[in-house]
Design brief:
single chain, about 90 residues, alpha+beta, HU Protein, Chain A, 2 domains, 3-stranded antiparallel sheet, two-stranded antiparallel sheet, 3 helices, 5 strands, about 45% helix
C-alpha cells in the first residue's frame, strides 16, 4: 500500500474527502517525525511506538573493495509494533 492508497482508505473509513484525508495523514506523519527528531518517544496505543535510538560506531567493509572502514555512530528512528498490531498480523 502506498500513500495514495492509504489516503483513499482513510477517506473511505472516516467519511471525509481525499484532500482532507491527505492533509490529516501528512500532518500526522510530520508531527511524528518532528517529535522523534527532538528525541521524544511517540506512542500510539495498540499500534506501536516511534523513538530515536543511538547506533554505536562499528567496523564495516566496502562491498566493492572489501576494504575495512569505520561506520560512525548515528541517531536513527525506530518503530516497535504494539501488542494489538502484532496479534492482528499473526492472525492474518
Amino acid at each position: 500500500m502506498n500513500k495514495g492508497e492509504l489516503v483513499d482508505a482513510i477517506a473511505e473509513k472516516s467519511n471525509i474527502n481525499k484532500k482532507q484525508a491527505d492533509a490529516v495523514l501528512t500532518a500526522t506523519v510530520e508531527s511524528i517525525m518532528e517529535a522523534v527528531s527532538k528525541g521524544e518517544k511517540v506512542t500510539l496505543v495498540g499500534f506501536g511506538s516511534f523513538e530515536p535510538r543511538e547506533r554505536k560506531a562499528r567496523e564495516g567493509r566496502n562491498p566493492k573493495t572489501g576494504e575495512v572502514m569505520e561506520i560512525p555512530a548515528a541517531k536513527v528512528p525506530a518503530f516497535s509494533a504494539g501488542k494489538v498490531f502484532k496479534e492482528k498480523v499473526q492472525s492474518a
